[in-house]
Write a structure and sequence with these properties.
17% strand, six-stranded mixed sheet, single chain, globular, alpha/beta
Amino acid sequence: MRPLRFLIISTSLVSLLHYYIGARLLNHMPWPQAVHWSGWSLLALSALLQPVALLARGFRNAWLRDTVSWVAMTVMGLFSSLLVFTLLRDVLLLVAAGMHAMQLMAIDFAALEKNSALLVLAATLLITVAGFVQARKLAKVVNVTVPLRNLPQSLHGFRIVQISDIHVGPTIKQGYLSRIVQQVNSLEADLIAITGDLVDGRVHELSQHTLPLAELNARHGSFFVTGNHEYYSGALDWIRELDRLGVRVLLNEHVQLTHDGATLVVAGVTDYSAGSFYADHFSDPSAAIAGAPSDAPKILLAHQPRSAEAAESAGFDLQLSGHTHGGQFWPWKYFVPLQQPYVAGLHKLQDLWIYVSRGTGYWGPPLRFGAPSEITCLTLVPFD
């Protein structure tokens, strides 16, 4: 009953928000009657598609599942931007009414309401189109230099290529992932780190689309940690599948790499929420580092940035994370700090460096605006 109750509540809320948009942009506006009818029809269709965007994953027919997901997720992104701009328009109108009441300026409200409504529609279409193009193109390489304390000279210049949050699923397939793998391999990394949320779907649905991961090539191999979406998609099956593809999955454990005579500890933890799915998957940075040499640089792969406090206490030097997507599209990046301590980029918590990737793919709406995807090339250097 809980999923049904959630569906009813969320659908009702979404319907009310669509009505709000229509009431503010269509009602009492001097549009032709055809525009009114078309506008309300499109809003009704959008309201119906919002829950479908989340339910389509359960469709058995692959073509139907993917087609409906493409349409519904794209509409979801458009609705999100339309809602935000409608709210901003109302704030503008409220401010204008206040200034008019205080006789600070004379305002033609009929013209302001019409022109601002047109501006809302134009801005929504612009962000949707630009965001779609940004989301679907190959992520750019972002180069980051990380100074680590006590880094041996032979590890100076050690390169880690990080990819994260690709979300192979209804709208991201083998071709998209293949382009990422080719770009990663061209960077000739010493190590490849995949920091979770690789998939949105079961192994039997997506195994053919994750095959390019077998082509990843780095001197010390590729490593993976689970994200929350792996646990929505059958994490145990994906752990076995990644192992079959030659990607090492780190489950609260570490490996010791020898690089030109120096030791580098690379550890990984399960997702911050993993313990609520499997008791033995409780995320534990201390367990991941147990038994590691104290004098070696220590790197932790942790899907969510909020693992940082425990990672710093455990003695790690660098944490690589994702999860946030950098907010993915405006203005949601401003809400990420409500859940995560870091949104994107390089940060420091006492002796721990944290790098948060904006993600290499996208989740949900095929839309990125103000938070471009990235393939991160991190170079280790000694701390001066």
